[in-house]
């Protein structure tokens, strides 16, 4: 179990360090993500409670970005999955995220806290699901098919009906 935690931490560090080191070389105040958050929040308030509709972020965001702030690039996504869900889905997006997080916490409780047996694969699954969720606060990794596909495997392990028995017996 200790080795699994250490190995998971090393993998998370390797995953995160590449992008993080490149970001640390840049001036954080010049990053457009702050602008996207500011005007994205304005859009979310304007479209509350119904949202602007699925897949409409770029069109819903554009009227809230002042012309003096626009440049050669424009926002296709909010660089924050949760803000983008809030803009597009409104109150339903908040409910969806809350329900998904509750389901995740229940799965962690059932697989790691209540269960007597804590297989390392379940600990690794928690880490493998948590990292992209945290990454979603500053980018949109869950909108890329590769990350979605990789995330589906540990998530399916956590949400499976068995209590973490990986030996093939139910």
Automatic annotation (TrEMBL):
Q: Which Pfam families match?
A: Wzy_C (PF04932)
Q: Where in the cell is it found?
A: Membrane
Cite the O-antigen ligase-related domain residue spans from the record. Answer: 14-97
| UniProt entry keywords in alphabetical sequence | Membrane, Signal, Transmembrane, Transmembrane helix
Q: How does it sit in the membrane?
A: Multi-pass membrane protein
Which spans are transmembrane here? Answer: 89-108, 120-138, 144-162
Q: Which residues form the signal peptide?
A: 1-16
Q: What is its main location?
A: membrane
According to the lineage, what is the superkingdom? Bacteria
Q: Which InterPro entries match?
A: O-antigen_ligase-rel_domated, WaaL-like
The record's annotation in PANTHER family points to: TEICHURONIC ACID BIOSYNTHESIS PROTEIN TUAE
**Protein name listed in UniProt:** O-antigen ligase-related domain-containing protein
List the top taxonomic levels of the source: Bacteria, Pseudomonadati, Pseudomonadota, Gammaproteobacteria, Lysobacterales
């Amino acid at each position: 179990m200790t080795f699994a935690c250490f190995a998971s931490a090393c993998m998370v560090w390797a995953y995160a360090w590449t992008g993080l080191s490149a970001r640390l070389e840049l001036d954080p105040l010049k990053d457009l993500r702050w602008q996207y958050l500011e005007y994205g929040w304005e859009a979310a308030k304007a479209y509350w409670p119904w949202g602007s509709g699925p897949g409409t972020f770029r069109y819903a965001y554009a009227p809230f970005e002042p012309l003096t702030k626009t440049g050669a690039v424009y926002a296709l996504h909010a660089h924050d999955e949760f803000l983008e869900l809030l803009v597009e889905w409104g109150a339903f997006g908040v409910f969806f995220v809350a329900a998904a997080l509750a389901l995740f916490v229940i799965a962690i409780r059932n697989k790691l806290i209540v269960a007597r047996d804590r297989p390392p694969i379940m600990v690794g699954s928690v880490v493998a699901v948590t990292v992209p969720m945290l990454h979603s606060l500053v980018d949109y990794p869950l909108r890329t098919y590769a990350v979605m596909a990789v995330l589906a495997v540990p998530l399916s392990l956590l949400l499976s009906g068995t209590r973490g028995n990986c030996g093939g017996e139910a």
